[in-house]
Design brief:
mainly alpha; 2 domains; two-stranded antiparallel ribbon; 12 helices; 2 strands; transmembrane helix; DUF5009 domain-containing protein; transmembrane
């Protein structure tokens, strides 16, 4: 078997995404978040709204190296690898949703977290479902057909929202996926970040999100097949510009929206991912500025483990309470970061501190050659 050439820029891209996820998920206070570090209220796209689709794109990049190896082991072995990995990531996501198994009730008592109200979906379950669906599509269809299937999925998703939506099909109340999630999962198992039962990582919007993985895979294959040369880099750059333009045009009739993961959002985010990847490849692979990306490379070597541990730490913060009844998360911000830096800068400093904390964990693991794969 020919070992595909490794590109440090792909690892840096993945690490940059993990660092971004930790940064935007851990502000000192959600009341003091700079607008670029917060999600768009509904339609639109902020820098924060790029982080999750970038991660899915990076999952596809990594798949472009691993899936051919699986396929060389035979059809059955490849299917087992894809399904096993999908199931493991999904179960880890369920574990993280349930952890730490206890919560504080309104009376200030520590009670067991009932499985009857466990959120089933979320970031890791979506990654698992998208990885599994994309892997199966690519395995059975091949590279060229998977590109056409992804295009059909994006068009079909648009049609589904128009055909089964109510009132404004792109609003929270009229979104067809909301009714599907309530019917399949039940309201008690949905996220309530919007004040009502609604999961931004719902079942229906997983279909277009899968296309981010497919496009990431195709980008990885293209880079491997073309090799490190300027025509390859030019191809990435031009394709990125065209996809951004196509996404903005589609936005006129099908608004860019992360929470329902619209098809225009997929094109727009994949386009920006290609542009960023082009810049990283030029700087690292062509100009040799490897040291500039080495910081983020650490995150990219244990991405899933570092992300899970960041979630575990935050949940432990929320479980531990001071004598005054304040959770440790709020106490750290109120007594350490805000007094020193103020509201908004202190909230950002809290997030940056945790990025540095988990960079240190990743650095230690890399130094000890500890790489946790699922």
């Amino acid at each position: 078997m020919t070992i595909p050439q490794r590109f440090l820029s792909l690892d840096v891209f993945r690490g940059l995404t993990v660092a971004g996820m930790i940064l935007v998920n851990n502000p000192g206070s959600w009341d003091y978040v700079y607008p670029p570090l917060d999600h768009a209220h509904w339609h639109g796209c902020t820098p924060t709204d790029l982080v999750f689709p970038f991660f899915l794109f990076a999952v596809g990049n990594a798949m472009s190296f691993s899936l051919p190896r699986y396929q060389e082991q035979g059809h059955k072995a490849a299917l087992q690898k894809i399904l096993k990995r999908s199931l493991l990531i999904f179960l880890i996501g369920l574990f993280l949703n349930w952890f730490p198994f206890f919560r504080w009730n309104e009376d200030g008592q520590l009670v067991f977290r009932s499985l009857g109200q466990l959120r089933i979906l979320g970031v890791l379950p979506r990654i698992a479902l998208c990885y599994g669906l994309a892997g199966l599509i690519i395995h059975f269809s091949g590279d060229r057909r998977s590109f056409m299937i992804a295009g059909c999925v994006l068009l079909a998703y648009w049609w589904l929202l128009l055909a089964f939506g109510q009132g404004d099909p792109y609003s929270l109340e009229g979104y067809a996926g909301l009714r599907l999630d309530k019917w399949v999962l039940g309201e008690q198992h949905l996220y309530r970040g919007e004040g009502v039962p609604f999961d931004p990582e719902g079942l229906l919007s997983t279909l277009p999100a899968t296309c981010n993985v497919i496009f990431g895979y195709l980008a990885g294959r293209y880079i491997q097949q073309k090799g490190k040369d300027y025509p390859m880099l030019c191809g990435l750059l031009v394709t990125g510009c065209l996809l951004v333009f196509a996404g903005l045009c589609w936005n006129l009739v099908f608004p860019i929206n992360k929470k329902i993961w619209t098809s225009s959002y997929v094109l727009y985010t994949v386009g920006i991912a290609l542009l960023l990847l082009s810049v990283l490849m030029y700087a690292i692979e062509f100009r040799g500025w490897r040291r500039a990306g080495s910081v983020f490379e650490v995150f990219g070597k244990n991405p899933l483990f570092i992300y899970v541990m960041s979630g575990v730490l935050v949940k432990l913060y929320l479980l531990v309470r001071t004598l005054a009844g304040q959770n440790l998360y709020g106490w750290l911000y109120e007594h350490i970061f805000r007094p020193v830096w103020g509201n908004y800068p202190g909230s950002l400093a809290f997030a940056v501190f945790h990025v540095c904390l988990f960079w240190a964990l990743g650095w230690w693991m890399d130094k000890k050659k500890v790489y946790i794969r699922v």
